[in-house]
Request: fold
Amino acid sequence: MQFASPAYLGFVAVAVAVYFALPWIRARNAWLLLASYAFYWSIAGRWTGVLLSVTVLGYVFGLLVGRAPARSRAARAWLATGIVLTVATLAFFKYGGITAGLLDSVWELAGARGPALELLLPVGISFWTFMTVGYLVDVYRGDAAPTRDPLAHALFVGFFGHVTAGPIGRAGQLLGQLAEKRRFGYEAMRTGLLLMLLGFFRKLVIADPLGVVVDAVYKDPHRYGAQPIVITLATLAFALQIYFDFSGYTDIVRGTAKLFGIDLLPNFDRPYFSASVKEFWRRWHMSLMGWFKDYLYIPLGGSRRGRLRRYGNILIVFLVSGVWHGAGWTFVAWGLLNAAYQIAGELLAPARDRVAGLVGLSDGGAVRRVLAILTTFALTTGAWVLFRSETLADARYIVGKIVRPELTGETLSTLLSLGLTAEQLAVASGAAALVLALEALSFRVDLGAWLASRVLPLRWALYQAALLAVVIFGYYGPVYDAAAFAYFKF
Amino acid sequence: MRLAKALAFVALTLVTLTLAGNVVKPGRSVFAGDGGAAWEDFSAEPNRTLDVVMFGNSHLFDSVDPIEMWRAEGIAAFTHGGPAQMLKVTRWWVRETFRTQRPRVVVIEMSSASYTDRNYDPEHQIVNVGYMPMSDNRIAAATLDTPSSERTSALFDLWQYHSRWTELTRADFALATKGRDDWFMKGYLPKFESRPVSDTLVVRPASDPFADGLVAYNIEALEDIVSRCERQGTQVLLLVTPTGPPNIYTYYLNNAAEQLAADHGNVRALDLSEPGAVPGLSYERDFFDGGHVNHGGAVKVSRTLARYLAQTYELPDRRSEAGYGAWDEAVGLHDSYIASETAGSAR
Reply:
């Protein structure tokens, strides 16, 4: 079942209706769990067993850690075992190709022939394994009580709203909500549906059409070597695609959760308006970066052990982040590059301030901020080349073309040969510009409050216009090859 | 109050989406070469005025011209076919038809009795189901007789046609008249080209297990149609239109007719593919291809069918009746169109 389908909307409508028709919280949670597993089964089939296994693992070890004296040797042992088993599950499936190769080597050494290993990556495994590890650590630290209710724990991990690609929830934030009996609320419905609508707009009107251009160029970048501007524009398109795809997904699932009265963590806070790479990573995929900060960076010492150690910790966190995204050198390089950006940014800060002072750019001034935003965007987009490229060699080739862009007479015709018509390109680009403009405006104006204060006919007209934009301009249906959400493969 | 507002918003949303779907969905028009699925024209027929409604595939809507039937015998008929329509969809069309019409005779063109899942074409299925008015019958056709891969397209016009937004013209927004500019053709799609076809009779063995299997696949849908017509007091005529070579579908016609007539008293069969069944039909000049006659052939087929229907079922001649005045206008428009196309073909 795809998110961008009438089947998903029908599923959500039925799930919400039955949920609020049930009188007891336990019955509601049971229903929500059933719906979540049915949803997951529709996507992952028999690999649902892996989700169930990790859920049971987290539940059992959460109890074991919780029962042992706080921060005792026993508690640490149970914690370590639980984490190792959970991470091993992730590693086994995520790096299955490597695992299969290793196993084949073992069988060979033994002079035998092993069973053919058919491994698929269970959807969302990177997310719910991290949630489980976070839960175990929170129980160990005393930040969350171990839940004795298996239903609540299973729902915490497997809630269909976040099971496929996050946001990575925290026990303290989510378990309490699941234990509450919430009343049906019109305001929650309105907010939830509006969020879903915005999510579909980001995904279907902007991300998916731009993805067509990106895929065409990045599949065979050498084909467009004579059109460096095309490669540059495709790279820019990817920067927009990945943002609107993932933020669109987040809006859809947060909106869905809101219909049940559940608040999931936000994942994005206008990241392309960051004035530094450090700030960018505070605004991008916030639930994952928050997880890395709390469960990796801080345990490693964070910034408490001196500058060199801090830089080392940043390198480790972003190396792990790269590996988390994929078993490939491009992801490793992407992670390390982002770490290098932050370290270099900090080291060069004094020089930057001196240069800015010399040219009369005041700290905190608008011009300096705009320059900083554009620079950050350029740096992160440059890093996205590594993230998106199929090989390091392709990435090097693409960067070589981007830094030497040339406009030729065939640029426009080449752009229009990538799979989108001029109208589709115009709509996707215009929609992206519109959303980014609204994000920029949102630093000065509370857009939610502005909308809520408009008269009813105007509000309804805006909602209908947004809905029409999605259903008319959206890249979905039998004519288009609908793209799965980008983060489903992580 | 909040509930009322919510319901009002939902209603507004449904209206918006329905209108949007009607705008992006292309109207079907004979002038654009669209054959069959003329629900827009059918829905415009005044209730309970049609004496004959005919169902089938392109063998029907290329071969039977209701205006010629009107001209010959004053029969009010409609050619209600769909492109490569499978009989399991036709049964839903028949049910939907009875919502607004009470025909005395339902005609089923029987080349479809040779269709099975091998003949399934997703694009045609989407047209045959998707152009039905939104109703329980359309939902049933989409959910029970359409594979899941086409179900969403068959049910939701926006899903199927929203990508047309780059091609929309002013005509797409004229919802009141969209798809109805060819109303006077009454579902008939004339072909004007001519190709000689074989006149050598197709001879089948007395027993053909393969063909029997195809009829068996379709007999349930035919039973459904015949039973429903029987309950409505409507006669059923199983028909085969001319083919070149002749008698390609005769086996299917006879096999199905025999099975149905055993249990139902309202079933007859008429094989117009038999050489000589349509007086004056020329295998040199009156065919568009081996399965379809051209307009010249359709005129002859239509007159022959009209005569048979009038005599066999004692159908009234409606030509001087009040309430049928629009047919005179239809005849004039139809003849002008045919004349202009014929002159164009001659050039």
Summary: The CA atoms of residues 199 and 251 of chain A lie 5 Å apart. Residues 186-219 of chain A form the longest helix (34 residues).
